[in-house]
């Protein structure tokens, strides 16, 4: 059986503005790869940190959190107290967290991101948006692109870490 085409090769996504298609494609590709590589990943390995690198759990939390935070900034909003608490909790070991729970949280965040892309007017893409408490200037397109880029970067790190820690039980 041949591997399916990557998301970007499958054509435009319905209702996503043309200039935002690459962002949606990147997020959906990350989601597919996350599901593929973490299929049957043991909960017991979530917090392993081989050679001191970030754990799979951290990356899963961070993937979800970054999308939430950066898409919030792209809407021109400040982070809520709930978002700030989630940021502080990223990477803090919590034995109650399960792989499936973290994957589902990421899936929900990707869905919300895609919906936001669908409702983003391309005429707003160069509008300035402030990032963080310091309101460091960026643009809507800069933030949305960075969210996709940051997601793929952390996904790559997560995939390597998951492979390394799986080898400890094989």
UniProtKB/TrEMBL annotation:
* Gene3D superfamilies with a match to the protein in the record: dinb family like domain
Give the lineage.
Bacteria, Pseudomonadati, Bacteroidota, Cytophagia, Cytophagales
The protein in question is named DinB-like domain-containing protein
* Pfam families for the chain: DinB_2
The record places domain DinB-like at 27-158
